[in-house]
Amino acid sequence: MDLVAVKEKFETNALGRGMLKVASKMYGVGAWAHRALYQHGWKNAEGVNCRVVCIGNLTAGGTGKTTTVLLAATTLAKAGTRVAIVSRGYKRQQKADGPVILFDNPDADWRLAGDEPFMMSRVLSKYQVPIVIANKRVDAANEALRRFKSQIILLDDGLQHFALKRDANIVLVDAKNPFGNKELLPYGILREPLAGLKRADLVVLTHCDQVTPRQLEDVRDQVRLYNDTVEILESEHRPEYYVDICTTRQVPLDEIKGPVACFCALGHPESFERTLQDLGLELRQKWRFADHQFYTEENLRTFEATRAGLPLITTFKDFVKFPDNWREILTKDVYVLSVNLHIRGGEGEFQKFTDVLSPKRR
């Protein structure tokens, strides 16, 4: 049973909810103590000799962090800036002795890096953006500087990580469910209290196309309660095309129509499914797995046996976790949907995003 199912089971009765609330208080004490160590100088954050920008969030689950990191990295790379991404490789299946570097190495093992860094490395390969993974992100940042002479480092999912100094924090807030019940894990979805918004230099609201203007204004008001000067941008995820993984062909969105089957292991699978529905597809069969699920041969054989010849659609994050012999099981009509993050409001709003990234601001 995964953690989400365990939490849902606890929430069905008063005793279980009480236990979750107690655990939430304990989590809060631990999170406060961790922050206090650095805020009061009992532990020192280490800096590196380039600009560091953190892209993170206050909540657990999918806020669109990965697509935001991809947008930042591609924007910088296109401008000729030497950019690197550092990560701890959440839920890596195997541990390496030292930093793992994803850069121009098509035979790399995703299990050493984690699914999200590995997926990002595939998307960013044509831009020559290195991704460095280590248990200590300071080690990853120093390795990026040593190997690639980076001008800017993007700290992936590091808002609650204080050991590496950063020059700016970009905080993502999911407009559909910004802060849950405003309780800390595991009773709520918050990784830290909402006062953490005070550390934001830029807030990006995601999934804005899936809520009303009034709901967006409510989210803005909640952010302003804790940081009344921060810039708040709006964004949405836009599908670009499909990739036929059996042939590597890029497929236009309007080429796939009618009923399909789909599967994913995401923090918010409903967003992926809604995107497919908005493209006019009928989700005849769908599978949902816990976030960061890795796939077995049995999973793929189930997809193949039950999809009844329908096109099968998933995400890049899921595709990179297929078993090595996936081609023996899935032989045709299997697609990955490519999605990018779009900053609303035109060039002026996008410039606010790029300004935070600029290495000249250090």
* Name given to the CATH architecture of the largest domain: 3-Layer(aba) Sandwich
Uncertain runs with pLDDT below 50, 5 residues or more?
Answer: none
Shape, per Cα inertia axes: globular
Average pLDDT rating: 93
Major β-sheet annotation: 13 strands, mixed
**End-to-end separation:** 46 Å
Q: Based on helices, strands and strand pairing, what is the structural class?
A: alpha/beta
Cα-atom Rg, whole angstroms?
Answer: 21 Å
The CATH C-level class name of the largest domain: Alpha Beta
CATH superfamily of the largest domain: P-loop containing nucleotide triphosphate hydrolases
Strand content: 15-25%
CATH topology of the largest domain: Rossmann fold
Helix coverage percent of residues? 25-40%
DSSP helical segment count: 11
**Total tally of structural domains:** 3
Order of helices and strands: HHEHEEHHEHEEEHEEEHEHEHEH
Structural features, described:
With 362 residues, the chain is α/β, with parallel strands linked by helices. The chain folds into three domains: 3-39, no CATH class; 51-237 and 342-361, Rossmann fold, CATH 3.40.50; 238-339, Rossmann fold. It has helices at residues 3-10, 14-39, 65-78, 110-113, 115-123, 137-148, 213-224, 269-278, 297-306, 316-319, 347-357, and strands at residues 51-57, 83-87, 100-102, 131-133, 152-156, 168-174, 202-206, 231-244, 249-251, 258-264, 281-288, 312-315, 334-343. Strands 1, 2, 3, 4, 5, 6, 7, 8, 9, 10, 11, 12 and 13 form a 13-stranded mixed beta sheet that branches. The longest helix is centred in the first third of the chain and has 26 residues, at 14-39.
